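Submission sheet (multi-component)
Chains listed below:
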Amino acid sequence: MTKSELISLLAAKQPQLDYRDVELAVKELLEQMSGALSSGDRIEVRGFGSFSLHYRPPRTGRNPKTGAAVQVPDKFVPHFKPGKELRERVNNGTE
Amino acid sequence: MALTKADLAENLFNELGLNKREAKEFVEFFFEKIRTALAEGEQVKLSGFGNFSLRQKNPRPGRNPKTGEEIPISARRVVTFRASHKLKERVEQNAQANREKFKAQAELNA
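Outcome: structure written.
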């Protein structure tokens, strides 16, 4: 499912809203979520999961082509931990 | 402060003028549609934000970390999230500017 497919599904579910508004609302939600993570804040959605940043310490990496050692600086990467309901539903779908 | 569904709904009310009930429902439906797609085995790709994909895990022996007791972990399907380049870059840019806050927060999350 892509963002535009999600928008179509939500538009069908909320017929009182203009398609354009649904599009804006989806973009707004994703922007809020990106903004929170980019400010170092967590996102907690019960039944869905939580997003937070994980710290990756600096390390010595290698250029896979030349084998030369390169210093990779530390960084923060977004991490998602699925919530209970999502975990269970995703796993039950396989049984 | 963590961002919650209530904050997201409040923002739709403030920014787009959805009424409070519509905003609350919209946020619910948004996450529900993503959950449903994933439960049906479908990958979810939200460009600019990231992709949720599914991974099949094989059974493996596990251990209760408290008691040391061995417990088998069954085969399962799990969700993984990969942030988009755009989101990763945005996080990194802000992290450079607010190193202390980010480190403190990441330690809480670890």
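Remark: The two ends of chain A are 22 Å apart (CA to CA).
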